[in-house]
Amino acid sequence: MKKNSKYLIIALACVVVLGGAVAALTLTGGTGEDTSSSAAASSSSTIALIDKTDEDLASVTVTNETGTITIHAHTETVETSSASEEASSGSESASSEAAEPEVEVVYEVDGLEGLALSDNVSTVARAGYSLTAQKSIGTVENPEEFGLTDPTATVSAVYQDGSTYSYSIGVANGGYYYVQPDGSDEVYLASVSSALFASVNNLADTTLFELEVGEDTSSAASVAQTTGTYTESAILNVLHLSGTAFERAVTIEYDPEDGYLMTEPRHATADSTKMSEITTSLTSLSADSLVKAHPSQEDLESYGLADPAVVCEFTCNGKEYLLKLSATDADGNRYIVYDGIDAVFQIANSTVTSWADADPFYLQSTLTLLPNIVTVSGMDLTANGQNYHFTIDREEDEEESTEDNTAYIYTVTNGDGTVLDYEENFKHFYLTLISITVAEDSWEMPAGEPQFTCTFSYYDGSDPDTIEYYKVSDRRYAIVANGELMGLALSDTVDLAMNNLVLLNNGETVPDPN
After folding, report:
1. Are residue 355 and residue 219 in the same domain, yes or no?
2. Both 238 and 295 in a single domain?
3. What is the pLDDT of residues 15-32, one digit of tens each?
4. Which of 73, 250, 325, 334 could in theory staple to 241 by disulfide, Cβ–Cβ 3.0 to 4.6 A?
5. pLDDT profile of the chain (514 residues), mean per 10
6. Could you tell me if 270 and 387 lie in one domain?
7. What is the pLDDT of residue 14?
């Protein structure tokens, strides 16, 4: 066989194979799995039913089983950032080579006026200016079999030049949908976005707000950074929680040195971990879906928001925020309104549980008074009717001191003037004392006299702090700090501190509580 004849036969064989593949694709119309491959196989195999741009669109109306979506489009000319920067700098290039302004298409949705819109708006709008079919089915005698007698959705577009285009969308087939343009007997298989079958509410942006992350300078933040548990979040200057779900309203304020402090319904240090969860939740808050745009008072009542279960008010960077929540429904969701958006949204309770399901006892620290031991100059205690006094003197440790930090040598003496061991016995007792925690909530102020009282005095002359423990049962002591009830402590922890107090005063060994 001649060489040229051999090449000719090979070429003919390739044509036959390729022709068979094209015929197979044309006849089958593809499946959901091969949609992308069939689209990429040959641009000539697709059919452009609508081939316009977003700037051509004036409006598009989509009707589906949820209702009607109408999107209006118009263009706006915006100056590019590079052009404005050059113009403001007065550079030569600003006058000779200034960037041309850009044309931006802006969408508005009927019923969602004034609300931020999601990216789904662009997706739905695209259905009005771009539609590509994968193949033509031809004229069909039984349109009901293709879902075109009672369409899944209809699309009607109006363009800036006044022309129109409308089509119906039938049932799905292998990842595509049957489509029939109005006024045509021909049916096509085309790729259609699922956004065309959703509600108009699907076009709303569900982001409620995003706050600027702040710098937490408090001692609590320093501890969290040291332990690797610190999370960056916004600083809430004041947080107030109330509503029908709160038996007692809660107010928490931020102090740059001490961190978050509860000021209502009792004065206490707020739990740093739980406050971190709250601030993280409120730094960026998004709902799951829009339920009702521009709600009336009747709407708010029907969604449980006229008399909300939770009212969350806070200030951040000088701006006030207000959130209202309904009670949690059987599916674990709540309705929510944000004062900055005229709409009702649905949100999962898990998104807001850190503050919506909180109460004073949950938010307060289990620790009561935590004076830093190096700031304490004296302690006066009473235990079971016996009085104790300790004086802590300090002198500068010249060997350990630096220009930036002054170190001290501490000496502790009891009421009899006996010098006691500071480094072990006193520190062990002190740790036992401040480790008494609030184990149970209580709002009933105890009667009678306390079994155990401790008053701390400080080197800087600040007001002393007094903490009292009242025995209210065989297993509980009520804790009163500076005249305010904090809750109940386990009897074992208070009894241990009183026992160690006797050991310390007598110069005996105080066990390490660790």
Report:
1. yes
2. yes
3. 333 344 333 333 333 333
4. 250
5. 35 36 34 35 73 97 97 89 52 55 93 96 98 95 94 98 98 95 95 96 97 85 76 93 97 93 95 94 97 97 97 96 97 96 98 96 91 94 96 92 90 96 96 96 95 97 96 97 96 97 96 92
6. no
7. 35
* Total residue length of the chain: 514
Please give the Cα distance from 119 to 123 (Å, whole number). 7
| Residues of the domain holding 134 | 44-203
* Other residues' Cβ atoms within 10 Å of the Cβ of residue 380: 16
The reported pLDDT for the residue numbered 48 is 96
Which residues does 421 contact at the CB level (< 8 Å), separation at least 6? 412, 507
247-250: long-range contacts, CB 8 A cutoff, minimum separation 24: 247/359, 248/359, 248/360, 250/358, 250/359, 250/360, 250/363
Residue 354 to residue 30: CA distance in whole angstroms: 49
Number of domains in the chain: 3
Is the same domain home to 390 and 496?
yes
Q: Which structure tokens are listed for 225?
A: 């950074």
1 CB-contact burial (10 Å; exposed 0-12 / middle 13-18 / buried 19+): exposed
Q: In 3D, which of 393, 427, 436 has the Cα closest to residue 413?
A: 393
Residue 21 in domain: no
Taking the C-alpha atoms of residue 509 and residue 514, their distance in angstroms, rounded to an integer, is: 14
Structure tokens at 435: 């480790």
Residues 63, 186: one domain?
yes
What pLDDT was estimated at residue 10? 32
